[in-house]
Amino acid sequence: MHVALPTHLKQHRIEPVVGKLLHNVVDVGFGAHPYTTLEMAARWATCNPALRVLGVEIDPERVRAAQLYAVPPQLNFALCGFNLTDLIGAQAATIVRCYNVLRQYAEQDIQPALLTMSKALAEGGLLLEGTSTPSGGMAAFDIYRKRNGTLQH
Question: What gap in Å lies between CA 121 and CA 130, rounded to an integer?
Answer without folding.
Answer: 17
